[in-house]
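so i finally got all the pieces together for this one. its two components total, 250 residues if u count the protein bits. some of the lines might not be protein, just check the labels. i wanna see the whole assembly predicted at once instead of chain by chain like last time, that was a mess tbh
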Amino acid sequence: MSDVDKRAVGAHYGLRDWLAQRITAIVITLYTALFLGIVMWNGGLDYATWRALFSGNAFSVATFLFMVALFWHAWVGMRNILMDYAKPTSVRLALQTIVICALIAYSGWTIQVLWGGA
Amino acid sequence: MAAADRPIVKPRPVYLNLFAIRQPLPAISSILHRISGALLFVVGIPLLLWFVQRSLASPEAFASAIGPLTTPLGKVVLLALAWSYLYHLFAGLRHLALDLHIGIKLAPARTSAALVIVLSVVVTLIVAVRLW
């Protein structure tokens, strides 16, 4: 039979995570370069420039993409660390849950910061 | 062959004591990547969000958010995070190069591992000089 599923073991998120870690890394790097470029272009940042920067939607959207990439990247990395060093399943599961909750909360916080209209 | 002549069966699995082994440079580079990444997650992200939120509120809040950065403790924290970010960034770029089979042989991989460490320290020192 040719349609036998040969994947007998494993969770199969390895390649997806490997790729996600690299794509998010590139997004983070590009945003970092963009941000440093803006700072240098302005010769430093005072409050008025800083505020004006975030009043534009393009920069806010770029920042949002950066933060989401950052959170995703942090999740893959933190889970890899916990898988290696937190041996008891209960401890690992608890810590992974804390990481996920923190990242979801940070996502909400990010939206509040960017579009909260303070 | 008599049973006594066979080597004694070693207990498995074998747990290596990582602190008793001399770590090669790429291994040190790898663990620093993890340490810097964990630091950025635990301290960096919440601090970044707090700082951006605070600094955007008003000119006074902007000044008060930057205020702690002028204290010695604030500078040390900022430098630790700056090093973490820089190291993680450089080590990550090295990783991407290795993925593309650039510098994948042992000698260049060792050189680039050392380069990443040196570069992260040098740029952190430049940030430190500008900060003080």
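The helical segments of chain A are 14-42, 47-55, 57-85, 89-115.
DSSP finds four helices and no strands in chain A.
anyway lmk what u think
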